């Protein structure tokens, strides 16, 4: 009994003390707190970045030879980053990059900040090209990297590449990040938990399944960051993130792509919502090897039965746009814009009667039924349920088997689904076309199995030719031709382009204009600041 | 008494082996694998094969099983397949937060529930009794995440006196305590509902016994009768409830951990499952089994303390 009393008394005291210790509004010189929808990281090795959070971290800790300026996702606007200039040989196969000589790596362990040299660049790119140490090795197949001297790097490619394609491989995205050779050799596998790069922020501490904190890199070559540090929190619950930004405990949060979330956040006085692209292309990949989808008429029927406007209306006009082309020309050179698709009469406008007629012609007067394995991720599942309802009106029944995300990724690669709904973005048309439409990427018969779920093989020649075309205009033409062929053969049906919404506290000043970003994150640069 | 404890201790190893074996095979039946989960969008066949080799998943199933088992028996919980960090470290960093939450919730539940249940039993069918039974029904019916969000809205947004995010700064007891108040209150109020009911029922049973009448007849004041004669006989069902609920709190706290963005064992498990992190899952579930055995042993000791007849055996 006595212990009960003392327990109650001490608890009451604790509560009283905590109430007394309420924090006042925090000063401006503090860490930026940003929360993302993620459960855990599997490491911070930039060459293994796959989720948007991996990319957000890589962009803070590392640089590439070139970069897309923060807030701009147009691959044509690549500008110098670690390299200050470059040139290419006559035959388009030998590239020479001149590095800046004022770049230092972040200090680590007992080591002071070491200068970046060509050796580090050669080492990093070599690692990016190694299938055992990188998820992007396919981009650098056949490449040779040499350090000519401390500030000059030579890269030899197996086939000539246009500047667009080449720079895309060397920018601050994917395999292009440059890491410290000394740190990687010293740490080995431990590098993924305590990476060392040249970027404005360095990793301070990773708490698994909880957060990762960064400290400003005082030696950053573009200037000391205004923020003393950044705390990146893993918060999978969207309501919790929303509450965090309302109470002021969080400065930036990942949102959701639903219009209702956007309008909810906009109601709060201290919160700004930014919706930016390009986001992800949501496309239905039809398994053309299994009946009934092996018949072009059936695929066309699905296209006619689908109203993209209805899907987009259900998600919200700001966060979704109808997608008519396999590669949206609005965001990538060599893609097709909606106008171009409609001009080519390949938009398959919504027409249920036509869909039913096509099915009848193909020998399915009573409609068809398709097995679809789908992820539980709401951002993909809800539009798909909308699609399912629409297609039902034309007699096309989709049996959705909803599984968790890792299972989904496994099963679709086992050819288990007749339609694969995939949402992804790739930084240039070559990667898009090669990974989704080239026969080498076929999920069952490909030589480099990837994401060609449709088993499509009709544009191999166009893609190969475009890849080795140095003239940017001609290259874009070839890509456009490939897109047209895809829309004629219809191995896929593009549905919508989904953009991200993120909410920022009005005291956050990004230091740049956020128009677009290659992945679902808000870049934090040396110019980002909090102004209370 | 001590031979019961000894038996429980000896059961530890076979139970752990059984749990490990079941988890090992059940996990591998589920579709999906850690390499694809980690690579996600980048899961080309080549990359998946390379990562699987790195994770040691290209070995035969039996080889993986025996290696894991021998490591476990030596106390080595292995390295997470997704992060490469030792699982022991992950568990040690998450466990304190979970235990804080479980103990605080249990404590709150007991501190509030026992007096409520006792009072209800004493003033049976009175206003307090009816009122507290309604409150208890609400506590049993309301899902923890609803209560958690409501409390968060009330005390983090409308009257901003408590934080809504995180488990507090490690090493700063005041910060940890502040971040514990709302989550512990959420689970504590629900616990209170169960405790109140069990106490009330136990107390009603006991108050009808002869020895209570005798104690009253001896002239003892009522509060002494309740406290020293009635209450000790309610302890056994309360200890059972506490033990079972402690285990439930540790596992079902994942909802609260997600809402309040706290670290903890529940979130560790769910996260590991999502990523198909076989090694983490196996080790964490074995630790879980060990925790259950430990809690049962503690309950046995408490039983013997509460009930002298058990002690004498």
Structure in a nutshell:
The complex is a heterodimer of chains A (532) and B (313). With 532 residues, chain A is of the alpha+beta class.
Low-confidence stretches of chain A: 14-28
Mean pLDDT of chain A, as a whole number? 90
Number of domains of chain B: 2
In the CATH hierarchy, the architecture of the largest domain in chain B is Orthogonal Bundle
Structural class determined from secondary elements of chain A: alpha+beta
Radius of gyration of chain A: 25 Å
Main sheet characteristics of chain A:
10 strands, mixed
Fold topology:
The complex is a heterodimer of chains A (532) and B (313).
Chain A: H1 2-20, E1 32-36, H2 52-61, E2 66-67, E3 79-80, E4 83-88, E5 94-99, H3 118-128, E6 144-149, E7 152-156, H4 163-169, H5 181-187, E8 201-207, E9 211-216, E10 229-234, H6 238-247, E11 252-254, H7 259-266, E12 271-286, H8 296-305, H9 308-315, E13 320-322, H10 338-343, H11 352-361, E14 368-375, H12 378-392, E15 396-403, H13 405-412, E16 419-424, H14 429-437, H15 460-467, H16 472-489, E17 492-505, E18 508-509, E19 516-517, E20 529-530
Parallel strand pairs in A: 1-10, 1-11, 12-19, 14-15
Antiparallel strand pairs in A: 2-3, 4-5, 5-7, 6-7, 8-9, 9-10, 11-17, 12-16, 12-17, 13-17, 18-20
Chain B: H1 2-29, H2 34-39, H3 45-55, H4 61-73, H5 87-122, H6 127-141, H7 144-158, H8 173-207, H9 210-217, H10 222-230, H11 235-252, H12 254-259, H13 265-274, H14 278-306, H15 308-311
Overall description:
The complex is a heterodimer of chains A (532) and B (313). With 532 residues, chain A is of the alpha+beta class. Chain A folds into 2 domains: 244 residues, Periplasmic binding protein-like II (D-Maltodextrin-Binding Protein, domain 2, 3-Layer(aba) Sandwich); 222 residues, Dipeptide-binding Protein, domain 3 (Roll), CATH 3.10.105. In chain A, 31% of the residues lie in helices and 22% in strands. Chain A has 16 helices and 20 strands. In chain A, a hairpin with a 5-residue loop joins β4 and β5. The longest helix of chain A has 19 residues. About 3% of the residues of chain A have low confidence. With 313 residues, chain B is mostly helical. Chain B folds into 2 domains: 121 residues, no CATH class; 181 residues, MetI-like fold, CATH 1.10.3720. Chain B starts with a helix and ends with a helix.
């Amino acid at each position: 009994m006595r212990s009960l009393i003392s327990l109650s008394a001490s608890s009451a005291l604790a509560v009283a003390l905590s109430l007394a210790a309420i924090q006042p509004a925090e000063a401006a010189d503090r860490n930026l707190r940003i929360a993302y929808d993620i459960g855990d990281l599997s490491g911070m090795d930039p060459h293994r970045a796959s989720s948007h959070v991996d990319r957000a971290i890589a962009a803070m800790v590392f640089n590439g030879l070139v970069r897309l300026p923060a807030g701009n996702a147009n691959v044509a606007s690549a500008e110098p980053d670690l390299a200050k200039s470059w040139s290419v040989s006559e035959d388009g196969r030998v590239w020479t990059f001149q590095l800046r000589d004022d770049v230092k790596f972040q200090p680590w362990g007992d080591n002071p900040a070491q200068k970046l040299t060509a050796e580090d660049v050669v080492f990093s790119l070599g690692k990016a090209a190694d299938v055992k140490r990188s998820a992007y090795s396919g981009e650098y197949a056949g490449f040779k990297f040499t350090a000519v001297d401390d500030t000059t790097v030579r890269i030899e490619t197996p086939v000539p590449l246009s500047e667009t394609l080449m720079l895309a491989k060397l920018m601050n995205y994917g395999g292009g990040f440059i890491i410290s050779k000394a740190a990687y050799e010293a740490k080995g596998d431990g590098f993924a938990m305590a990476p060392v790069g040249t970027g404005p922020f360095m990793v301070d501490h990773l708490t698994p399944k909880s957060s990762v904190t960064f400290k400003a890199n005082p030696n950053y070559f573009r200037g000391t960051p205004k923020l003393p540090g950044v705390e990146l929190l893993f918060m999978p619950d969207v309501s919790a993130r929303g509450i965090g930004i309302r109470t002021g405990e969080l400065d930036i949060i990942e949102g959701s792509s639903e219009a209702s979330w956007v309008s909810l956040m906009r109601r709060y006085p201290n919160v700004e919502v930014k919706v930016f692209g390009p986001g992800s292309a949501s496309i239905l990949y039809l398994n053309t090897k299994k009946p009934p989808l092996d018949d072009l008429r059936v695929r066309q029927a699905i296209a006619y039965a689908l109203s993209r406007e209805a899907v987009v209306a259900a998600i919200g006009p700001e966060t979704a746009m109808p997608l008519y082309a396999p590669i949206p020309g609005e965001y990538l050179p060599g893609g097709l814009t909606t106008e171009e698709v409609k001009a080519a009469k390949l938009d398959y406008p919504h027409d249920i009667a036509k869909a039913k007629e096509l099915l009848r012609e193909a020998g399915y007067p009573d409609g068809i039924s398709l097995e679809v394995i789908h992820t539980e991720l709401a951002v993909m599942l809800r539009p798909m349920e909308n699609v399912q309802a629409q297609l039902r009106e034309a007699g096309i029944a989709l049996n959705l088997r909803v599984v968790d995300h890792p299972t989904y990724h496994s099963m679709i690669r086992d050819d288990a689904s007749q339609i694969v709904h995939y949402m992804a973005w790739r930084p240039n048309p070559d990667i898009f076309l090669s990974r989704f439409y080239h026969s080498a990427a076929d999920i069952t018969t490909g030589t480099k199995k990837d994401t060609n779920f449709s088993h499509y093989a009709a544009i191999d020649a166009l893609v190969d030719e475009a890849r080795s075309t140095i003239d940017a205009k001609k290259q874009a033409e070839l890509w456009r031709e490939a897109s047209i062929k895809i829309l004629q053969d219809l191995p896929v049906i593009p549905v919508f382009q989904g953009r991200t919404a993120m909410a920022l506290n009005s005291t956050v000043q990004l230091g740049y204009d956020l128009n677009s970003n290659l992945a679902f994150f808000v870049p934090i640069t040396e110019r980002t600041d909090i102004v209370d | 008494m001590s031979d019961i404890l000894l038996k429980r201790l000896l059961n530890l190893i076979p139970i752990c082996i059984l749990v490990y074996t079941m988890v090992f095979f059940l996990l591998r039946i589920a579709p999906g694998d850690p390499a694809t989960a980690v690579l996600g969008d980048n899961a080309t066949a080549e990359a998946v094969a390379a990562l699987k080799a790195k994770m040691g998943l290209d070995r035969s199933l039996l080889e993986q099983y025996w290696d894991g088992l021998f490591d476990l028996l030596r106390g080595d919980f292995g390295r997470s397949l997704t992060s490469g960090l030792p699982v022991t470290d992950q568990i040690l960093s998450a466990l304190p937060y979970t235990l804080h939450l479980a103990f605080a919730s249990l404590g709150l539940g007991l501190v509030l529930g026992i007096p409520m249940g006792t009072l209800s039993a004493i003033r049976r069918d009175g206003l307090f009794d009816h009122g507290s039974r309604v409150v208890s029904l609400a506590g049993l019916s309301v899902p923890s995440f609803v209560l958690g969000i409501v409390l968060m809205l009330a005390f983090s947004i409308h009257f901003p006196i408590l934080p809504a995010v995180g488990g507090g700064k490690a090493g700063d007891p005041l910060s940890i305590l502040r971040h514990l108040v709302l989550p512990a209150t959420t689970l504590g109020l629900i616990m209170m509902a169960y405790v109140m009911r069990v106490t009330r029922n136990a107390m009603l049973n006991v108050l009808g016994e002869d020895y209570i009448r005798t104690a009253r007849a001896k002239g003892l004041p009522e509060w002494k009768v309740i406290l020293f004669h009635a209450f000790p006989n309610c302890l056994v069902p309360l200890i059972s409830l506490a033990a079972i609920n402690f285990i439930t709190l540790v596992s079902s706290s994942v909802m609260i951990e997600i809402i309040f963005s706290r670290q903890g064992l529940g979130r560790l498990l769910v996260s590991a499952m999502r990523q198909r992190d076989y090694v983490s899952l196996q080790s964490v579930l074995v630790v879980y089994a060990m925790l259950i055995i430990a809690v049962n042993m503690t309950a046995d000791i408490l039983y013997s303390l509460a009930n002298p007849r058990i002690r004498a055996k």
